[in-house]
Amino acid sequence: MVSGMGTMVAAPHTAAGATSPPCPAKGYSTDVCVPISRLPEVVVETKRDLQDSGLTGPMVGHVGDGNFHCILVFAPRDTDESQRVHAFTQRLGRRALAAGGTCTGEHGVGLGKRALLLEELGEEGLDTLRRIKTALDPYNLMNPGKVL
Q1: Least C-beta-crowded within 10 Å: which of 30, 92, 104, 128?
Q2: pTM of the entire structure?
Q3: Residue ranges of the FAD-binding oxidoreductase/transferase type 4 C-terminal domain (predicted)?
Q4: Number of domains the chain is built from
């Protein structure tokens, strides 16, 4: 899969494969984006948070724009671990917001980051996004009943 690709192009493809656990597990990728000047501090805090939470999740990114990902590997049937993953992703999003960044770099908001998006944009910002979505999708065919 990677042969023939340049090193920079191949890295994102091999990072996900490197997280493959030896037992049945699920990978959950989340991302944030922060000002480059705050990136080192946020990455260090995030690594500490992962360790303190007892979670497995390499961090990868194309950090030239302040965007990085955590690929969390966990057993989905382990309720405690699933809750720790959810709590971690919320803390990561809030950490990015506190650093002047965004709760999502490129993966989108999804159901898991709805509350964070409200914290980031406020009700007025969300209303603006809803109006844009309505203009582009008047029949609500695209992802109905989700974030907007």
Answers
A1: 128
A2: 0.81
A3: 27-147
A4: 1
